[in-house]
Amino acid sequence: MKKTLLSILFLAVAFSSCKKDKNNEIDDLKDRVYEYAQEVYLWYDALPSAGAFNPRRFTGSSDLKALQAEIDALSQIKMNPSTGKPYEYDATYPGTAKYSYIDGGQAATSIGGTGTDFGFSLSYSDASYSDLRIRYVYPNSSAAAQNLVRGYRVLAVNDAPVAAGTGSNSDPVIIRLNQALGGSSIKLNVQRFDGTTFTTTVTSGSYTTNPVIKAITITTATGKKVGYFAFSRFTVLENAQARIDEAFAKFAADKVTELVVDFRYNGGGSVKTAEYLANYLVPAAMNNTVMFTEYYNDKLQSGNHPVLSKDYSTKAGQFSQANNTFKFSKKGSLNLNQVFFIVTGRTASASELVINSLKPALPQGVKIIGQTTYGKPVGFFPIKIGDYDMYLAEFESRNAEGKADFYQGMIPGGNFAGYVANDDVTKDFGDPTENLLSRAISYIEKGTYIVTALKGQNSLSVNEEADLKNVNQLLDHKHEFSGAVHDRDLKRIH
């Protein structure tokens, strides 16, 4: 009996000790987040002392969520004088960080060129939430293997109807769809463009990403050769380079004179890959001129970063403007007078970096078509916090004119030349009749974006557009990566 009581007492003490060690571990990570923020965060100058901020006060249903709660809080402190709101204000999720976040390695995997999902997503095309479509399909994925195509209509998911009622997060159909999308397999009943139907099961799994969704040449009615390049994400250059080279070799062989770059769902990724693509798009006459400059905070620029230097190898002047000014190095033979970019609210960071960098190089030739972009003129390098990767906004990227004025997004016809039009998920990538691509072709042919035969997507009221956007955001259960990651010369030593 005495031995039994002693055993129980020992186990209780051991459990209490383990719990205390666990609490100490997460508290140490919270402290570490704030130590790094005080040193590398772009807007560190507005942060209070650690004692006043008290990083250990944040909680969550997991350690990761507790750390994200801390990052959300620190991100809301520095105010943007031009808007009266935090620099990291997210209108969709007020109070949370628009740019900075922490994850368990998912972003690194995605940028590294590995997909770990179904390889497709869903969106409603109409304000009644009755017409559910395949929004995109990634090459090499399970969805691609099952012959799914962007624009195909989804009639049923796991044998259940897909027409939603209110389109809210409490709508039974939306709940059911998200449960299905969060599983390891999903059954779809699908209608092709010709009206025929088929049923297939898509399984979630790992695949090598091909970021070039489509690269084709379209011959217009007047015989102009228009290149169409749909690019899904800026994976590391080792993954993306051969695919980009192949696409632009084709455009050169086809003697393309105009180019449409489709970034509509591209949330960014590797800065190095963004540079590589921009060098294909820039005119030869702009070779060796400034592409962009990364501006870090004054601590990093002056080399005052003891916390970072303890964990990572750094070089003298590594974060100075002189060592972070990048110039164009023209690639390929295309010499374009204008480039059209198709964009939406999911176009972010490295995608916006390419557009912003080309604007001074093609002052009359950079045009955007679609919806206001995400608005992320900042980037980061990843920092290890325990088992997690932290991405704090660490630098602002400005073009050759010193501009990074799109925190609220790039606006077609506003701060960027272009035309406002809605995404059209009823057509495949590269379809000349698709709502956004057709606008670019019309401008190339006639000098006007207006396509009188097209209505549908652009006939939605402002309220219907907002409602449709909200319901489709509820289906974004994966929350695609958004960022510009600088992966040069920063190696961990601890």
Number of helices: 13
Which overall shape is indicated by the principal axes computed on the Cα atoms? globular
Q: Given the helix and strand composition, which structural class is it?
A: alpha+beta
Ranges with pLDDT <50 over ≥5 residues?
Answer: none
| CATH topology descriptor of the largest domain | 2-enoyl-CoA Hydratase, Chain A, domain 1
Largest β-sheet summary: 6 strands, antiparallel
Helix content range = 25-40%
Number of domains: 3
Mean of pLDDT: 92
- The CATH homologous superfamily of the largest domain is termed 2-enoyl-CoA Hydratase, Chain A, domain 1
Cα radius of gyration in angstroms = 24 Å
Secondary structure: number of strands: 27
| N- to C-terminal distance | 49 Å
* CATH architecture field of the largest domain: Alpha-Beta Complex
In short:
By secondary structure, this protein is an alpha+beta fold.
Describe this structure in words.
The chain has three domains: 7-98, no CATH class; 110-207, Roll (Pdz3 Domain); 210-492, 2-enoyl-CoA Hydratase, Chain A, domain 1, CATH 3.90.226. Helices cover 31% and strands 23% of the residues. The chain contains 13 helices and 27 strands. The chain has helices spanning 2-40, 50-53, 63-75, 106-111, 142-145, 172-181, 237-253, 271-281, 298-302, 306-311, 350-361, 435-446, 462-474; strands at 79-80, 85-86, 101-103, 114-117, 120-124, 132-137, 153-157, 160-161, 185-191, 197-203, 205-208, 212-219, 225-231, 258-262, 268-270, 290-296, 312-313, 325-327, 339-343, 366-370, 378-379, 383-385, 388-391, 395-399, 418-420, 483-485, 491-492. Strands 5, 6, 7, 8, 9 and 10 form a six-stranded antiparallel β-sheet that branches. Strand 1 (79-80) and strand 2 form a beta hairpin. Helix 7 (237-253) packs parallel to helix 8 (271-281) and helix 8 runs parallel beside helix 11. The longest helix has 39 residues, at 2-40. The radius of gyration is 24 Å and the shape is globular. 42% of the residues are buried.
